[in-house]
Design brief:
mainly alpha; 2 domains; two-stranded antiparallel ribbon; two-stranded antiparallel sheet; binds zinc ion
Length: 237
């Protein structure tokens, strides 16, 4: 697991067994029916891992609730790491399913590991406004200069595997529908500048809480868009 902090876990060869007596199937039984079983003495460790994320939010998508503990290196291919704490990561059901037993053959194909991968403190999530009727929001990754090319590819790959752009776009559409009535009211009384200042305050508040949440990216784009503040806010469907 020394390969974790340097982003090279994909180099660990897969194995079918731990020892000739302890194969993958038996390790899976030990994990499910003993380690993670409700009431087992080790269940406290399982729960500590599952409940570790702030607000119970899945660290892989940053949106849905944690449902279970996932094996970063799949248990079917790496039974030797079946009970290794750094290989056990909290995950929502959808991210768990999306990842399943996908094997990374290159460094770029590795999804992000919440314990090892640090994306830093700069903004990297962007919400593009598609100036259409009804308007739409499209999310993408904008790698900061200090990311290595491999990390940039990994984040993009992670986004794709977990379906994050689609997930965030749906959340953004719902958020826009929620604020639409208030924006139209504000636009009617104070015009584009009132809409812009309101959206800027919303952006600043989200930024203070999380620099790269879908909400921060959304409100940033909304307040910066002259099109949205002038007329786009009336095209929310
Ligand atoms: Zn998730």
């Amino acid at each position: 697991m020394k390969l974790g902090p340097i982003g090279k876990l994909f180099q660990i060869p897969t194995t079918a067994e731990v020892t000739p007596e302890l194969n993958g199937k038996l390790m899976a039984v030990i994990y499910k029916s003993h380690f993670a079983r409700v009431g087992a003495p080790t269940r406290g460790i399982y729960d500590a891992i599952r409940l570790a994320p702030k607000y119970g939010i899945c660290p892989l998508c940053g949106q849905r609730s944690v449902g279970s503990v996932d094996h970063y290196l799949p248990q079917s291919l790496h039974p030797i790491f079946n009970l290794t704490p750094v290989n056990l990561i909290p995950s929502c059901t959808d991210c768990n399913k999306a990842k399943l037993a996908k094997v990374a053959l290159t460094a770029e194909q590795q999804t992000l590991h919440p314990y090892f991968d640090d994306l830093g403190d700069e903004r990297w999530l962007v919400a593009d406004i598609l100036e259409s009727n009804p308007l739409a929001i499209k999310y993408r990754v904008r790698p900061p200069s200090y990311w290595t090319p491999v990390l940039a590819e990994r984040v993009k790959h992670h986004f794709e595997v977990m379906g994050i752009a689609v997930l965030y776009a749906a959340q953004a559409a719902s958020e826009l529908a929620d604020i639409s009535h208030a924006l139209v009211k504000l636009g009617n009384s104070g015009g584009a500048s009132a809409v812009r200042s309101h959206l800027y305050e919303e952006f600043a508040s989200r930024l203070a809480s999380d620099k790269n949440s879908w909400k921060t990216a959304l409100y940033e784009s909304l307040c910066l868009s002259a099109w949205f503040c002038n007329e786009g806010f009336r095209l929310v469907n």
